[in-house]
Amino acid sequence: MTRSPRAVRALVTTLAALLTATAAAAPARATPEPKAPRDFVALHSVDPTILHEIRYVTPHNFVGERIDGYRQPLCILTRPAAEALRTAQRRLLPQGYSLKVYDCYRPQRANRTLLKNTLEDLGFVNLAEEWWHYTFKPEAYPDTYFDFPVSQRSVAGHR
């Protein structure tokens, strides 16, 4: 089946008109990403000697995969907190020690609420200052501090 040049020209004209109309449509506008307030800084810009191991940007964390919201291995915190860490680092370095941070600012993700609700339903109590810190209540040894090493031998024979 052959088409007449007029039919082909009409088809091309129609396609061109459709492409022009599509191209002329208002461009989609992306919502700009939120920015940190001005008093937030990257810790390395205040003290580059503090060690970083930002695990939430890697699968090497308690979830086993990168956490949404972490795009770079960067410690972000307020300038006063960064400056306080710099002061602490300056006191520790001459003694042969260094600070190391594993995470700093944490974006808010729905998984925290899921974890909190799940654990609280089972008798765990969250330490409000540390979203990841839970204690099982009632504690079996509330007034006892232990000092055994974390090793398989410490629990050998237990099931």
Quick recap of the structure?
This protein is of the alpha+beta class. The chain is 31% helix and 10% strand. The protein contains four helices and six strands; from the N terminus they run H-E-H-E-E-H-E-H-E-E.
Explain this structure.
- The protein has 159 residues and is an alpha+beta fold.
- It is built from 4 helices and 6 strands, in the order αβαββαβαββ.
- The strands form 3 sheets. A two-stranded antiparallel sheet has the order 1-3. Strands 2-4 form a two-stranded parallel sheet. It has a two-stranded antiparallel ribbon with strand order 5-6.
Q: Please state the average pLDDT score.
A: 82
Helix tally? 4
Model regions low in confidence, pLDDT < 50 over at least 5 residues: 14-24
Q: Tell me the structural class.
A: alpha+beta
Number of strands: 6
Instruction: Assign a percent range to the helix content.
Output: 25-40%
Using only C-alpha atoms, the radius of gyration works out to: 28 Å
Order of helices and strands: HEHEEHEHEE
Determine the strand fraction and express it as a percent band. Answer: 5-15%
Give the terminus-to-terminus CA distance.
80 Å
Largest sheet: 2 strands, antiparallel
Q: What characteristic shape results from the CA principal axes?
A: extended
How do the strands of the widest beta sheet line up side by side? 1-3
